[in-house]
Amino acid sequence: MSDKKDVAIxxxxxxxxxxxxxxxxxxxxxxxxxxxxxxxxxxQHVLNGVSFDIHKGDFFGIVGRNGSGKSTxxxxxxxxxxxxxxxxxxxGGITPFIELGVGFNPELSGRDNVFLNGALLGYNRKQVSKMxxxxxxxxxxxxxxxxxxxxxxxxMQVRLAFSIAIMARNxxxxxxxxxxxxxxxxxxxxxxxxxxxKASGQTVVLVTHDMASVKRFCNRAVFIEDGDVKGLGDPxxxxxxxxxxxxxxxxxNLKNSNESQEVHEQTHLKAVIAKSPLSKRHVYRxxxxxxxxxxxxxxxxxxxxxxxxxxxxxxSGEHVTGENSRYEIKSPIDLTDxxxxxxxxxxxxxxxxxxxxxxAFKKEGVQAEAISKGFEFIVAQDDDISxxxxxxxxxxxxxxx
Amino acid sequence: xKYLHSRNRAIxxxxxxxxxxxxxxxxxxxxxxxxxxxxxLFAILYIIFTYIVPIGKDIEHYPVILLLGVVLxxxxxxxxxxxxxxxxxxxxxxxxxxxxRYLVVLASSFSAFINLLLSLIVVFTFCLFNGLxxxxxxxxxxxxxxxxxxxxxxxxxxxxxxxVKYRDITYIWEVFLQGGFYASAIIFPISLVPADLRxxxxxxxxxxxxxxARYALVPVEGNVTIWxxxxxxxxxxxxxxxxxxxxxxxxxxxxxxxxYFAEDI
Lengths: 401, 265
Fold this sequence. Notes:
The complex is a heterodimer. Chain A is an alpha+beta fold. Chain A has a domain at 262-379: Coagulation Factor XIII, Chain A, domain 1 (Distorted Sandwich). Chain A is built from eight helices and 18 strands. Chain A has helices at residues 28-37, 70-77, 110-120, 125-139, 154-165, 184-200, 211-217, 235-259, and strands at 7-21, 41-55, 59-63, 85-90, 172-176, 203-207, 220-225, 228-233, 262-265, 270-273, 283-284, 289-295, 307-314, 319-324, 340-346, 353-363, 366-371, 376-379. The longest helix of chain A is centred in the middle third of the chain and has 25 residues, at 235-259. Chain A is elongated. The mean pLDDT of chain A is 83. By secondary structure, chain B is an all-alpha fold. Chain B has one domain. Chain B is built from eleven helices and no strands. In chain B, helix 3 (62-89) runs antiparallel to helix 7 (168-183) and helix 3 (62-89) packs across helix 9. The A-B interface holds A 18, 25-28, 31, 75, 78-82, 96-99, 102-103, 105, 107-108, 112, 115-116, 118-120, 122-125 and B 6-7, 9-11, 13-15, 17-18, 21-22, 25, 92-99, 165-168, 259-260, 262-263.
């Protein structure tokens, strides 16, 4: 492969464990209690032997889902954490930052923050003064530099932080999720900066969820999953692998949610709502049908259940509609030959969030049981809706001469 | 190595200046509080111990002796208290940047040091009003203050480290300082302590330091220093050995644990 001199960062069999006390010993009392009880600890293995090299001049991507261990890896690279086992060799200076705007002080002016942050990057006052103008111009914050940082919008803060960060002239730069912030115009600027880095052969480590930029900038990448290296090398392959693994997770989640229809139970009354066949969740399209099964089999056979009512409320409280079984199904309901009632709605209602209220009556007006909480669904916004108001009533237009 | 050095100096400088810019933000009197705080404490103590419990009445230059004690003690207590909490207070920085951790503790102690210099100006002004005029022996204050600084910083390193794991430390230290205030002969001159008890007081390096400082400014009989104690001779070394031991222990403990600050905070 490459000779030793070309390696910027060598990650060798890095393990990182976190010992998580069940109750953190943050006081003597707890410490004393824990000494007596002992071993109230669990060890979490965050990285299980990660190895790879980053070469000089690499634009190196690190991808992985949240919780995969990539942030821990990054902290080890930057020297914030030390590995439990294994080692990281860094040849040359590395940005000590793993996040933009760390060390910003909200009580200081933008100007003072530039000097403070500059110092953390390794510059003294004189050096920062020289690049001050450039930083301010890049951040487009000329008029705001004497205001306190706490009065900046979050976008402004990020712009300032990034503008300082790119002044770093370390051998190795680390950027964590910088592309996720800022508006489009600013992102375009970031991209330009990255292009420049790439052209000039600057060693950059980029952590991102954005596979498009991995493919665009990186020449090598690593895919971390569950604390292991899942893939290493060609960024296109890595990006595809990552996207594929992400899709699998999403599908698995959907499948899971599909399997469980939502069930709500009282002592006897039980209702099952089948999820939307389209979205596999409680999100329905306008006009789609929603089926509610009301299971009465838990009631004793001789219980006099007069009727069942189903109501739809908007979550803001308005009563949209209510149905009672008594008008269509013989009352009282003969529980010896009926175990379930099924109701199907056509959701011709305004896109919004709704909740269901289901009740069983002993006799008119006297409730036996009710299910009132947790049954929510959403009718999704649809561009094709040709009416306004809360509901679309069955209707017909006719021309009359 | 030289690059590293200058880089850390820049960080230290910015941290101290940040601390100073923020400290009195929003207060009308601003930095004057640095001078006012010890002065007000002094005024209270002076009134109590000159008029109500008149132990200071017959002591030569009692105001200077009292003020100097208050100023040095405030410095010691500020360095140790702020230092003890410094690592935890900069948790965000520690978790996300790999700057040398000792800079955080040092920055907090240097801010207190600058405060002390301001307060000493008040002390000198007091001296002039009290009929004490600049003398060569005043220069002795420089090594004396440095000794106190070293002692306080050593303690700060130790406490800051322990505080990461046991947050009780800051509270315990507060109580400890309350007791220390009386054990350090701030409000009364050590000459009021019976001679055979005095030796126990001098086990406390702060007593040795404050008495030396008082003697440097007010070289009178009443200001007993450790150097006047004849027996046992090795007694004179004990405060210095304690300081060295505290600094070494604090430094080693800090160095050993600082790798894990980011995950322990």
